[in-house]
Amino acid sequence: MEELKSFIRHVQDFPKKGIGFKDITTLLKEEPQFCRVIDLICEHFNNKKIDSVLGIEARGFIFAGAVAYKLKKGMIPVRKPGKLPAETIKEEYMLEYGTDAVEMHLDAVKSGSKVLIVDDLLATGGTVKATCNLIEKAGGIVQGIAFLIELDFLKGRDKLKDYDIFTLLHFESE
Amino acid sequence: MEELKSFIRHVQDFPKKGIGFKDITTLLKEEPQFCRVIDLICEHFNNKKIDSVLGIEARGFIFAGAVAYKLKKGMIPVRKPGKLPAETIKEEYMLEYGTDAVEMHLDAVKSGSKVLIVDDLLATGGTVKATCNLIEKAGGIVQGIAFLIELDFLKGRDKLKDYDIFTLLHFESE
Questions:
Q1: Do A102 and A91 meet the contact criterion of CB atoms below 8 Å apart?
Q2: Among this protein's residues, is A157 annotated catalytic?
Q3: CB contact set of A157 (below 8 Å; sequence gap of 6+)
């Protein structure tokens, strides 16, 4: 994993001063590393029954599309409010200041359906927890959550105690 | 292709009154159809040398991620302004009223690199043409462009005459 980690670029002061941003584009653009990430996620969940792979806008779509293809499953997009055209369900979550929300089509998850969430990065966990709530509201089951990166120091995992989480790259500090 | 087409949901008056929206989520969530789309795109470009697969935010990421994985290539994201953390190049394009822009990391495309663009939908072609310009500014070659859907009546293809375009599903009218 240390080799994969070396492909993540650290960008200081993005999106604002004091924040150290983990840039995944330097990993994405390298074929062996990008494909290895997808393979490792798929291998980890290989023994679990999965009906659909869910991706969270926008970077999550890159990984969820590839994992869905590799596992031969359908792909479900969760998006920012107002982007999905048909009937949606919505879930709000807290930000440092104010709230944000994610939406999913009401018909995206069948009752009893087993869903694997794939996202690029676990930070404070608000978006992912809201996504778990959406799946469960629709009657689905969160079968697992895969992240390329986890920022351990933000303790997002604490919000996701009920779930099987698989993270490839851990960062213990900024 | 008519079978694949039947999985696209028509949503009237989205995002605004008078617009007929092509909803791809009803295709994405069905495994055989989603995977077939990826396979057909990859088969079409199988005989062309491709170095990287480029996806345009946000829905384009779903397809570009899966195509990159299947072709065993790296993946390059093109994003809305302000989303990419390192040094970018930017290209503006005209909207009905005003302009919009797309950005790409300066180090995303190497000189002489052959890039396949994958996107969900060709409408007026502004975003895709701007993306072609970005690739060429960086010294790359647009080796092909793949779309799931083309809205023929919007004539986006007229802006892309220099390129090898492959579309799976054509809609001749709203």
A1: yes
A2: no
A3: A122, A125, A150, A165
By DSSP bridging, strand B9-12 and strand A165-171 are unpaired
Which residue range(s) make up the domain with B69?
47-171
Does B29 reside within a domain?
no
The answer to whether position B70 is within a domain reads yes
The closest of B155, B105, B104 to B125, measured between CA atoms, is: B155
Rounded to the nearest angstrom, the minimum Cα separation between B85 and chain A is 6
In this structure, is residue A99 part of a structural domain?
yes
Residue B66's H or E segment, with its range, is helix B59-71
Q: Does the interface ipTM go beyond 0.85?
A: yes
Taking 3-state DSSP, the helix, strand and coil percentages for chain B, each rounded to the nearest 5, stand at 30, 35, 35
List the 110-169 stretch of A: residues with Cβ below 8 A of B.
none
- Asked if the Cβ–Cβ distance from A74 to B25 is below 8 Å, we say no
Is the whole model's pTM more than 0.95, yes or no?
yes
pLDDT digits (tens, 9 = 90+) for A35-48: 999 999 999 999 99
Task: Count the domains in chain B.
Answer: 1
- What are the structure tokens assigned to B109, written together? 């495309």
**pLDDT tens digits, one per residue of B38-94:** 999 999 999 999 999 999 999 999 999 999 999 999 999 999 999 999 999 999 999
Per the domain annotation, does B21 fall within a domain? Answer: no
Cα dihedral B38→B172→B174→A76 (10° resolution): 0
Judged by CB atoms closer than 8 Å, whether chains meet at A55 and B35 is answered as no
Min Cα distance B34 → chain A (Å) is 6
pLDDT digits (tens, 9 = 90+) for B7-48: 999 999 999 999 999 999 999 999 999 999 999 999 999 999
Tell me the sheet residues that pair with B12: B20
> Percentage of residues in chain A with pLDDT exceeding 90?
96
